[in-house]
C-alpha cells in the first residue's frame, strides 16, 4: 500500500504544472501567454509561399512586457515583381497574470502581422490570413515523463483588416508537446470567425478555419527550426494542397 502511494505521488508531481517552464511566445501562428523576459530578444524569419519572406524582432522590455516589429514581402524569391507589405507591423504583449499550479498564465497583446501575401484591391486590403490584432491569451503547462505539454486558448479582434466588412471576434486554441529536449510537436486551430466574407480567389480560408501543425527542432541552444504545415483544412476549389512554411527563431540575452 505504501509503495502504491509513493508511485501515485510521483505520478501526480510529474503531471503537475510547472511554474518555471516558460511557454513559447507563440505556436505556429497563434499567440500564447508566454513572452520574452527583460534583457532578452528574439529574431524570427518566416519563409512563406510564393517566395515570400517575413522578418520580425522582439525584445523583453520588462519581465512582463515585450515589444516587437516585423516587415516582409511576397515574390522576394523568384522572377516576378517584388511586392512589399504596405507597412511595418507591431507586436506588443503584456502578461497580466503569471501561471500558477492551479491557474493559467494570462496575457493581453496586439499583433498586426498577418500571414501569407498581402492582397490589395477587391475591397480586401488584407493578408491571406488576417493578423490576430488585439487578443487575450491563456496558457497552462504540465510536465510529463517525455517533457512539457502546454495548452493555449484565446480570443482576438482584428481592427486593421476590416475592408471585407467582417469585424467578428475570433477564437483560437493550440498545444505544444515535447517529445524530447530537442523536438516538439505543435498543433493549433484558428476559427477565423472574422473571415466569413472575402472576394479574392486566392484567399484560402476553408471549411471553417485554419488547422495548422508543425515540428519544432531546437537545433542548438536558443535556435529553433520549425517546419509548418498550415491550412490542413484547405478548400480544394481554391488551393491544390496545404501550405508548407519554414520558420527560424533565434533567442538571445543581453
Q: What is the succession of H and E elements?
A: HEEEEEEEEEEEEEEE
Number of helices, where a helix is a run of at least 4 consecutive DSSP H or I residues: 1
> C-alpha Rg, in Å?
19 Å
Termini separation: 52 Å
- Tally of separate domains: 1
Largest sheet: 12 strands, antiparallel, barrel
Task: Fill in the keyword field for this structure.
254 residues, mainly beta, Porin, twelve-stranded antiparallel beta barrel, 15 strands, globular, disordered N terminus
What does this structure look like?
Helix content is 6%, strand content 48%. The protein is mostly beta strands and 254 residues long. It has one domain (2-253): monomeric porin ompg (Porin, Beta Barrel). The strands form two sheets. It has a twelve-stranded antiparallel beta barrel with strand order 1-2-3-5-6-9-10-11-12-13-14-15. Strands 7-8 form a two-stranded antiparallel sheet. A hairpin with an 8-residue loop joins strand 3 (65-74) and strand 4 (83-84). It starts with a helix and ends with a strand. Mean pLDDT is 84; it is low at 1-21.
Write the layout of secondary structure elements.
Blueprint: H1 2-15, E1 40-48, E2 52-60, E3 65-74, E4 83-84, E5 89-97, E6 105-111, E7 115-119, E8 126-129, E9 133-143, E10 148-157, E11 170-178, E12 183-190, E13 210-220, E14 223-230, E15 243-253
Antiparallel strand pairs: 1-2, 1-15, 2-3, 3-4, 3-5, 5-6, 6-9, 7-8, 9-10, 10-11, 11-12, 12-13, 13-14, 14-15
